[in-house]
Amino acid sequence: MTLGRLLLLLLLCLPGLAQASLEASVDRTRLVEGDTLELTLESPASSRLNRPDLTPLEQDFEVQGTRQLSLVSRLEGRNQPVTRWIITLLPRHSGLLEIPALVAEDAASAPIAIEVLSSSQAAQDRSAVLAPVFIDSEVDERHPYVQAQVVLTLRIYHSVSLYDDNSLSGLEIDGARVQRLGEPQQYTRIINGIRHGVSEVRYAIWPQRSGLLDIPSQLFSANVLEDRDPDQRFSPRTGRLVQVRSPSLSIEVRPIPPSYPANAVWLPAREVQLRQNWQPDPGLDLLTGEPLTRSLLVQARGLSPAQLPELASRLDDLAGMRQYADQPLLEQQIDEYGIIGIRTDSAALVAQQAGQFQLPEIRLPWWNTLTDQLETATLEPLTLSIISEDGQVSEDPALAGIQPAHTSNVRLWPWQLATLLLGVALGASLLQLWRTRRQLQALELPEEEEHLELDTQNNPLTDLQAACRSNQPADARKALEAWARRQHSDGLIGLSQQHAELGEALDDLNACLFGQSDTAWRGKSLWRAVRMVIQAQKREEMARQQQSQVLDTLYPQE
């Protein structure tokens, strides 16, 4: 062993000297004599390191090229600079070789062993050429129960660059339900010193019958990025189609255990939780006829929402208590173990009689797939106390499901006072509404006394009235624009800005014409707004005439 290697081993053994890490990987660990390989050195050092010392490589390799890249990677939510060296090596001879540890300042890499085959060895060993793309598959349970979740994980490894147009065939299994668990996860992994990109895809599988279940292989297609022709410097980079299949798997599906209750819904899961929510608080005294909303929630790991049973049907109607069920709410979540199914059943409970109502216990049996045994999720029984509007509870113990309760005296004068104040406020509001209506009627001109001059020749009001009566929006808009140009210098825009009621009617008309309203247009509101504009103009004209008469009286002309 040379003095240089001894010094290198001392550097590796002293943790104080090798504070920064230098990660080494190669694109292959087995190659044929005469082929080159790429050695990648990467350091997440906070400062840019000097070029590593490549002298230890010269004994067994010829360094044909070196490239240095300065990158920025995001680690643990922080941006961190990364320095990467890509070194092209040509082995000097065949056999088992070792890429020695390399040092860059205070960072050192680990050695990597490779095998270089001679031409005769490569001719006899067909596995000498490593597959650049391959697939691995696994399931989390080899002997699941029927309708229990099985998570299938596919990992696509590639040590070469791939185009983005890769595809994976769909998974269909006869006798099983299949659901993909989210989007593929991308990460890297070093296998035998070779850096591989990994695309992980997961599926949830629910076998629908017991016995042997075959999971077919899936086809992965991708275009591998080919290197440029070394004889042509500016030659384009092309792609080569690669197709690989995942291994097919078989699992043995077990039937429902005999110890499971025969009249219960089969629920094989990793965990089942049963909860309930009330609105309002059931611990308070409630009045007869007042609705009480009860929400029952069941959550199961490993089951889809469609597999969860309905809980509202377990609440049989009690004597004097009615139940009004709502539509169930089905939800699902995805975690590292697969699907989490959630079902919420809500129902309104309305007591028709006063008394104490005993809601029965809810029991939900399920099979724990982790411990392989029967378990039961329960909700304790609950007592509701219902009082009548006069503050009394029922004393009839013969009511089924109702316990006799003690009479309680409730002071009802606050309710009577609130009702009186509400009646006084309502009366005052009606009086004010009547007065306002009288004032508006006093300001309006009687409809029968209006003279709109509809018989005048070329008067657009005639066309507008006809269009409004026949509910024709396009004709009404045309006639309205013609009339507005005679009334205001800015036409319809200026007139609608001056009169708010006309602006609102115009908005309804435009909504109908331009497809923003689903209801049929009625011209009555537009014609009423036009009449109100005409009335306002007449009042303004009468005011100007009165003012002119006053001025003539004060300043008579001689």
UniProtKB/TrEMBL annotation:
It holds the Pfam family BatD. It comes from the Bacteria. Residues 1-20 form the signal peptide. The keyword Signal applies. Residues 458-535 form the DUF7939 domain. Keywords: Signal. This is Oxygen tolerance.
